[in-house]
Structure formats: C-alpha cells, structure tokens
Amino acid sequence: MPPKSNAPKTTAAGFIKAIESGSKHLLIKRFTLRYPEQKLKFVGDGYQFDPKRAVGIAGLRGRHILNHDKCTGCQLCAITCEGIAEAIGMVKVDEQWKHNKKGIMPQIDYGKCVFCGLCVDACPFYALFMTNDYELAAYTKEHLIYTPAQLAIKPKYNGDVEIKIDDHGATHHA
Amino acid sequence: MPDLEDRIKESQRMGIQITKESEDDRLMTLSVGPQHPGSGHFRFVVKLDGDYIVHCDPDPGYVHRGEEKMCEYRNFIQNIPHLERPVIHDSTNITYSYSLAVEELTGIQVPRRGQFIRAIASELNRQIYTLYWLAIYGIFLGHSTMFMWPTGDRELFIDLMEALTGARVTHAFNIPGGVRNDIPNGFKDRCLRQISYYEKRLKEYEDIFYNNPLVRQRTEGVGILTKEDAIGLGVTGSVLRASGVPYDIRKAEPYDIYNEIDFKVQYMQTGDSFARAYVPFLDMRESCHIVRQLLDKMPESGEVRAKLQANPRGPPGEAYRRVESGRGALGYYIISDGSPKPYRVKISVGSFRNMLALPHLLVGAKMGDMPVIYWALNYWPVEADR
To answer: What percent of chain B stands above pLDDT 90?
Structure first.
C-alpha cells in the first residue's frame, strides 16, 4: 500500500475555486512595463566601488564611466578582465596627464563584456565606475567598442517609473 | 543498457508478450531532444512498446562547457562570473558554495552582516529559480496560466535582485569574503512588502494549480519513487524530500547563519510526480519565512565584506563545502597547491544526480506521462553537463 499523501485534499469544488482565482484577475490592473515609453527607476547612479573600505555601492551594473583625471593607466582593470571576458584593452590617448605618464587608458568592447563589474572592484583610484545606461545596441560590432573618450561621457538615463506593490497587486507609477 | 532478457522481463511485468524475434519490429525507438521541446539541451532515447516506455537511455553532454577545467586557469576571484553560467537562474546559490569552499581554503572570515545579506540573496534567488521551474512545469502540463503567473511574479523578484546586486540574472554577488555591496536604502521595506504580496499569490497558485483536480489527476500516482529507491539512487533536493526523507543541507550541515534561523524542512510521503512538484512550492513558502527572519535579525550596520589581498591564496590543501540550491545539494571540492589559482575544482551538482532517477521512473510509464515525470525531477541540463 502506498504511503498516505499529506497534501491538502481536493474535490470537484476545486474546479470552481480554480476558475474563480483566475477570473479575479480580469479586474486587476496588469503590471507589464511598456518599455520604450516607460523606463524603470534604479537605485543610485550605478555600481561604484570604494577601494578604501573595500566594499561596493549598490547600483545597476550598466555601461562604464571613466574619469580621465583619475586614471593612471595601471592596467589593473585589464588584468582582471583577462580571465573573465577579455573585453578591456589599454589604448594610447592623445592627452598628456601628469598622473598618467604612459598615456594609456582602458577601452571596453561591449560585444564581450559580461557586466560583472569586477574591473570596478579592481580600480584603486576611483577612476572606473558603472552607470545606469544599459541601452547599448549598435548596428556593427565596431560600434560596440567604446574608446576612452566615449567612456568619459556621462550617459543620460531618465527612468522615472517605480513599481508599487501593495495588497491589491503590483502597478507601475511614474 | 539492459540486455534483451531484462527488457522482455520488464514487458512481461506489464502484461505484454515479447519474444526475441518480434522484439525489434515491435519496439519503436524515439529520440526526445536535444532540441528544446520537452527536454532542453538534453536527449534521452526511449524505446516504446505501444504507449509504454520499456527502455530509457539518457544522453547528457550537449552543453558541456568545461567549467571545471576553466577554473584551473583563473584565480579565485576571476572564477566567479563563469561559474554562475551553468545555472543563470540560480546564480547566487551556485557561487555560494564556491565562496564557502574558498573561504575554508584561505581562512577568510566573513563579517556577520555579510553572512545575512548572502543568505537573503540566496533565498530570493531560490524563489526566482523555483518560479522559473514552476512556469515550465505548468506549460509542460498544458496549463498556460501557470506559465504566465510565475513568469510575471519572477519579474518582481528580478527587480528586487537588481536593486540589491546591480544585475538582473547573473548577479556575481557572492565573493570569497562576503558580498560585493551593502543593501541599498529602502531595500528592507520593499522586500517585506513584496514577500507579503507574494505569499498571497502563493495561495492563488495553490487554488489554480496544485488543488486543481485536473492537475492532480495528471500528476498523482505518476512515476512513484519509493523512499528506499530514492536513497539508493542518491537523488537529492526536492526529489529526495518528496519521497519522505526530510533532508535539507540548510538543516543537516548549516552554513553561515542558517543554524540561527528557525524553519521546517518541507517533505512529502508519496514520492509521485505531484509530491515532487509540491515540495518546491512548500519550499518557496518556507523561504518567505526565512527572508522575514533574516531581515529581522540582520545587524543594523557593519562590514559586509572581508578585506582581501589582491590575489587571495591559502596553504596547500583541500576543501569541500555544499549548500542547498534550488535543485538540491550543490557542492564544490577544491584542491589548492598554494598558488592563487585552484589546482582542481570539482562541482557536484544536484541535477546530475536527479537525472539518474529518470530511467528508473520512465520504464513502465506511458509516453504521455513523460513530461510530467521528467520536469518534476527538477533537472537542469546545463548544470548537469557543467
């Protein structure tokens, strides 16, 4: 004899209950985000890292931002990425900096980047952070390679829709 | 592969007469997979006698990626992003046991607040994985509402994980020494509100799916795995608990702060496909209690991550640590030779061990019951192949 089940018993009334719980949702507002028109609001300005306390600051891991006046060309980000995605390469920049004698800065290939953010953890000079920009689609592979000049530009992201969860359900509010 | 004698005996058990001569003509060989419908990067060859399966030969390996070998060429930190690729839906749990093993090797102590945040991320990720699994189980049974609802509710949890970790699916959040970042402002309130909403939804899931007489008829008494067979085959996780063995790694060998958390191990007695589908659901409900307790007991402030040297390394030695993932015990066995890179990494996954029960359950079952039995095993082909 098979062991007795400890699941709740069900009867023909289960059909009615199932239909009832499904049909209730005809009246409840759906919570699908209409994406290109509506964009979600994120916590903070993107993932950052504080090397002094050795801990990250919560935020979306989107496209990077590079502070040219802090990058020393130490290559630690590229060394970290070597075993992960090999997305970061060091390239020569035209500008001359006192703190960057070699004049090299990271260039990131977003066709390869996995957005793990470990390059940000590796940077000891507060030079490389991540931003909320995640819309990186391009027509060619070459356009996915961001030069140090492109990485320095602060992206404009204006997501203002927040998800509101209460007892009646989940909805989006601008 | 069992020999002809066995197959003949197996068929006679079901009251079908097979002789050596007629056997090849009578049986139909059918390859299920490796394309997605019904199997997902995984193939099993079944031999059918009419509608009954008389032989099943699983053929994994289509998504073998060499994760274990890849680990040997990267240092302990660089291994994290690629190790979560086998189960991207459960990426916090698959890096959890790796981090625990590396911490044991290198002697890193995780701060108390870090342990709590880790456990919260792990429990939320368990919900994400189980909802995804439940969605596919629903569509396997032809219940398309059960595909839509968990997929929609999973989105809310993904948003929550996005606020916490910064990534939607592959979080790369657990790291040897703790977690990558602290909890953002307002996370606790948002998490509690979501959990209470979600518990209401779980009641609706029960009404529309688990207590639905149609689903019960489809799953109850199908593919029964007895307690003795479950222990003998070495299955783990929800499959083992559905067969009446209350075994959970979180209780059996508590890691981090799980020994301070009060929760029950959810298990069922019957060992059929319904029990295997119901145990993850009970786990989700229990997981909500765990998240509440974790948020309540978490220290208000403190370090979340131990300071590491640039290339963490430990003395030569070995470590084996495991956690309870969405699919059962997930262990890492790491040997270190004292260098910053591991000498050998062995990943022991729950999916592979649950797959061993598949031929055992399918032989004697009807072909129509195949999806019900197969997906209730909580099998994730990519994880099993590593």
So the answer is: 9
